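quick one if you have a minute, typing this from the bus. theres a chain ive been looking at and ive put its sequence and its fold in C-alpha cell form underneath. please have a look and point out which stretches look like helix strand or loop to you. anything you notice is useful, everything is just below.

***
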Amino acid sequence: MTHGWEVTRLHPTRDEILPGVFLTCLQTDKFKTGVVSLNLLTPLTRENAAKNALIPSVLRRGTVRCPDMDALAARLDSLYGARIEPIVRKLGEIQAVGFWADFVDGAYLPDGGGSLLEDVIALLGEMLLSPVTRGGLLRRDYVDSEREKLLEDIRALANDKAAYSRQRLIELMCAAEDYAVDALGTEDTAESIRYVSLTKRYRALLAQSPIEIFYCGTADFDRVRDALCDALCTLPRGELDDGIGTDIRMNRLEDDIRYHTESMDVTQGRLVLGYRLGACMEEPDLAAIRVMNALFGGCPTSKLFMNVRERLSLCYYAGSSVDVLKGVMLVSCGIEPQNLDPALAEITHQLDALRAGAVTPEELESAKRTLMSEYTAASDSIGQLESFWLSQNVQGLSYTPAEFAALIEDVTADDAAAVARSVECDMVYFMYGEEDDADDEA
C-alpha cells in the first residue's frame, strides 16, 4: 500500500487546539497501528502524586455510556479491538497522567476504517470527561478498588531491589525537593485517598492542567484536530498552571558528600551514587551530557563497565543514567559489602579520568554510536517516538530523533570532559544484607 508521503515526516505538526491543549501529530504510514496519548501535566508533589496517579485508573473503570469494565471491553472490541489504558509518568518534577490509546490504523482496513479514528478519540474523551458517578462523585467502590491496586504497585517497588535502591537515593538526596516523590506517590498518602477528595482533585486536574496529546498514524493533522476538539469540547478550563517545571539544583546540598546505609533482606549489596550535573545545566548541551554519561557508565564499553566490573571485578553490574530534566546523574552497582570502599574509589577514579579528558578515540566512537543507534531506532517504535516527543515538548525543544543523533555525532572528547568537570557527587547510598538473609532473593 502506498501513500502520498515518505515513511515518516521528520517534523510533526504541533499546535494549540484548545486552551492549554497541545496536539503533536506525526503523520506516517510506517506502522499499522494508530496511537493517541493524552497527558495531563501537573506539578509533582507529595500531597497530590498518589491522587493524580489513581485518577486514570478510576476513570478507566467506566463511563456514563459504558458504566463498567464489561461494557467498556465490549465497546473497545467493536472498535477492532482498540485499547485504552492508564499511563502515569514522572518528567523531572512534572507528573504526567492520562491515557494511551492504540488501534488498527484505518488506512489498513478494507473499508478505510470509516470513522474508527473519530470513534476511538470520542471514547477517549468520554473516559476523561464523562466517568460514571453517583451523586456527582466518583464511585466509591471504584475508587476503593483502584486505591488497593495502587498500594500494591507502590509496595511492589521494594521487591525490585535495584529500582528500590535508586528511588531511596533520590528520596534521601532530594528530600527537600519535589523530585524525591515517585510517580505513583507514597504509600501513606495513597492510603488516605477517599472518593470525595479524589473527585475534588479530578476536577482541579481537568481545570488547571496543560494537556499534551500525541498522535501517530496515517491521518492528517486537521482530521485528528477536529476529532479531538469534538471529543474534548466540554473540557472545563479554569486558571491553567502554565508555570509548571523543574527546579534544578546546581550543587550538592551540603559541603561534603552525604552517606546513607540501609539494611534489608538481600544477598547482594546495592550501591547508588547521586550526582548533580552542576553548572553545565545553566545552558545545557544535551548531546554532550548524553555522551558524557555514555562514556562514564551508559554503554557496554563505558569506563564503569570496563574497569569497575570487568577489569577489577568489584561489582556484578555497574552503570550510570542521567535525567536531563532535573540535572541529576545516578550510578548503580551490585556489589559485595567488602568491595564497597574499593568500588567507590574506582568509580571516583574513572570520573576523574573522564574529567581529565582521558578518553580514547575508540571509547568516544563506541559511546556515540551506541547513542546514535538508540535515537535512530526510536523511529521504529511508536512508544519511543511518543516518549521522545513528550520529553521534547516539556523541554520546549523541537529536535527530531535523527537531528539529535546528528548533534551527538558532533560531540568531542573535550565537550564530554567539560560536562564531567561540572559534575559533583551529592550522596552515596548503600543497601546491605546480613549473612542469615542468604536464602532471600536479591
